[in-house]
Specification:
The complex is a heterodimer. Chain A is 35% helix and 22% strand. Chain A is α/β, with parallel strands linked by helices. Chain A has a domain of 135 residues: Rossmann fold (3-Layer(aba) Sandwich), CATH 3.40.50.150. A seven-stranded mixed sheet of chain A has the order 3-2-1-4-5-7-6, sandwiched between helices. In chain A, helix 2 links the parallel strand 1 and strand 2. In chain A, helix 1 crosses helix 2. Chain A is globular, with a radius of gyration of 17 Å. The N and C termini of chain A lie far apart (44 Å). Chain B has an eight-stranded mixed sheet, with helices on both faces. By secondary structure, chain B is α/β, with parallel strands linked by helices. In chain B, helix 4 crosses helix 6. Helices cover 35% and strands 15% of the residues of chain B. Classes of the chains: A alpha/beta, B alpha/beta. Chains A and B meet through helix 3 and strand 3 of A and helix 9, strand 12 and helix 10 of B.
């Protein structure tokens, strides 16, 4: 079982059977395969890593090799092509997370995003007491060699959603073992290690068709 | 069956059903030469059709008796290779209009008793697919497990998926494009002018004149070959290296790259004895290929009826049919919610990369072929 299986199980709980799903940064296709098996979903994965593409293809996953930083998802898919556009642990590695959220909610009716919480108390205490960048199970690499170039806290993310008129439909905050507890509910921004968000575009008041 | 140890030999299918061609011409009868590798299973569910590129032919794998050089895609087809002949029955035919055994410009026109030469009708990708469908029926294959091709062969795969959607389960389209660009057509036109302005061309009747337009053909090949390579790769392989180590300030062959290109042209025109009229026909077929044209220039509409599952592969340094061209195909398939995977393989080798070893390419290919095998096994078991 992959270490991310608990996270995938939590996501799977949100997905209605027979949905159409796009997984951005789908890796080796584990999540899509899981959703195919448990929720009979159809759809595609997008992934840049050739090795992971090979594994995804051998799993029977339809994977489009592409770079999420080229921001061309809308050229591949029409508006509302998917019931869900999922992005697990990729928000913090792309060059423009804000643009990607726009793209997600353009081609999908709903977005599901998971990312590590930079505002977790252990990260903060390491910064505060040791003056050093956090390094732990959810952020395993040193600052100079990490793909996580846009780390944020849950509050940061929620501010961004607010700014972008994106509605947060549901939020699950869990610890690194992907368990939620009374404690993570108490002060999620301080105590949660990983968050799973279901987001949706708020109904438009006036159409701004700039493109 | 160990293909490496056993010789392969071509077979010929004579077809009496007249072929009504896109140009309006009718070919009353014709031959298709083809080779097969591996064994067809009881349910005929493990058959693959390989479509060749511009100068390719039906000899795609294995060795002819006494020949040191294997077929053109030997690296990828054989026991244990990505296209595993221990499991698949592989078929490859020489396209109509070719010069390696299928009826073409160098064949005798039964109506006149003379060589067709320039009178051979203009042939299109659609015509090739229709003629190959006769071969499919002859081999008692209801449906190909996959049709696979690179470059021009990849375009033929697209045409198969559009014209005979129920006769193929998977389509593998490699280093192809949905149609030629103006630049692609321009290169073809220069190649054709090189051939047609060779004094030995004799308006296409060079066989009767007992000669061949070798110079024109070699030039055409040199030009074509250039478009198969990348600037980077030529830089790495030749750079500005000189044959004699110093400049001679003359028009002799001085740079290694000149020598290489001349050799490629020479080899094609003399040793491989490629028919000049075939070269003209193949480049024309490429120029005409545009399946979207019949659908208001909408490729998504053209592919709407295709039911095959697709694997599309492009190569980063290919500027003849660049990755963007493959992405056009992918996007049109996605518009139709088709089952499609796309790989953009990092390679320095330009368009030629589809014929060369590459770990990523081979990995994707192998993984996808295993998927096809699983599909065909499931089908074999259920029928």
């Amino acid at each position: 079982m992959s270490s991310r299986q608990p996270e995938f199980n939590l996501i799977s709980e949100w997905i209605l059977p027979n949905s159409r799903v796009l997984d951005l940064g789908c890796g080796d296709g584990t999540l899509l395969h899981h959703l195919k098996e448990t929720r009979q979903t159809t759809g595609y994965g997008m992934e840049i890593d050739p090795e992971k593409n090979i594994v995804a293809i051998s799993r029977g996953i339809n994977v489009i090799q592409s770079n999420l930083n080229s921001n061309d998802i809308c050229s591949y898919f029409d508006e509302d092509s998917f019931d869900y556009v999922i992005m697990t642990q990729a928000l913090q590695v792309v060059s423009r997370p804000d643009l990607l959220i726009d793209e997600m909610l353009a081609v999908g009716k709903e977005g599901i995003i998971t990312f590590p919480n930079f505002g977790h108390w252990r990260n903060l205490s390491r910064l505060f007491f040791q003056g050093r960048m956090p390094q732990n199970a959810t952020l395993p690499n040193p600052w100079y060699n990490t793909a996580n170039i846009h780390l944020c806290t849950f509050s940061d993310f929620e501010d961004l959603c607010e700014e972008k008129d994106v509605a947060i439909v549901e939020r699950k905050v869990v610890n690194s073992q992907h368990q939620s507890s009374l404690i993570t509910h108490l002060s999620p921004n301080l105590l949660g290690e990983v968050a799973l968000y279901r987001i949706k575009r708020k109904p438009k008041i006036e159409s701004s068709s700039s493109n | 069956m160990k293909m490496d140890q056993e010789w392969v030999s071509p077979q010929t299918l004579h077809i009496d059903t007249p072929l009504e061609m896109v140009s309006g011409s009718v070919l009353p009868q014709y031959d298709l030469v083809y080779e097969t590798y591996g064994q067809l299973n009881d349910t005929a569910s493990n058959a693959l059709l390989i479509c060749h590129a511009l100068s390719g032919n039906h000899h795609v794998a294995g060795y002819y008796e006494g020949d040191k050089n294997p077929g053109w895609w030997h690296a990828y087809i054989g026991p244990g290779k990505p296209i595993d002949t221990d499991h698949f029955f592989v078929v490859c035919s020489n396209n109509l209009g070719g010069c390696h055994g299928s009826t073409g410009p160098a064949s005798i026109n039964p109506r006149t008793g003379q060589v067709y030469g320039p009178d051979f009708p203009i042939v299109t990708c659609k015509d090739w697919v229709h003629s190959q469908n006769q071969l499919r029926q002859h081999l008692n294959i209801d449906r190909w497990a996959a049709v696979i091709g690179g470059s021009m062969g990849g375009m033929q795969v697209l045409q198969w998926a559009i014209d005979y959607p129920d006769q193929l389960q998977h389509a593998i389209v490699i280093a192809a494009a949905p149609k030629l660009s103006a630049q692609n057509i321009a290169f073809n036109e220069v190649a054709r002018r090189a051939i047609m302005t060779d004094p030995d061309f004799h308006n296409g009747r060079f066989i009767e004149a007992n000669t061949t337009p070798k110079k024109g053909l070699a030039l055409a090949r040199m030009l074509g070959h250039l478009t198969y390579l990348s600037d980077d790769m030529m830089g790495t392989k030749f750079g500005r290296e000189l044959r004699e180590g110093k400049l001679s300030y003359s028009f002799d062959v001085e740079f290694q790259v000149e020598s290489y290109l001349r050799y490629q042209g020479e080899k094609f025109a003399t040793k491989q004895n490629f028919d000049a009229n075939t070269y003209l026909l193949m480049t024309k077929a490429l120029d005409y290929f545009d399946p979207a044209a019949e659908f208001d220039n909408n490729l998504s509409h053209a592919l709407a009826k295709a039911t095959a599952q697709f694997l599309v592969i492009s190569f980063t340094s290919d500027w003849r049919f660049a990755p963007e061209r493959s992405r056009e195909i992918v996007k049109a398939l996605l518009d139709n919610d088709a089952e499609v995977s796309y790989a953009e393989v990092n390679s320095q080798h330009g368009h030629d990369a589809f014929l060369l070893p590459n770990d990523h390419y081979e990995g994707i290919f192998r993984a996808y072929m295993k998927r096809i095998l699983a599909d065909t096994c499931a089908e074999g078991a259920s029928s």
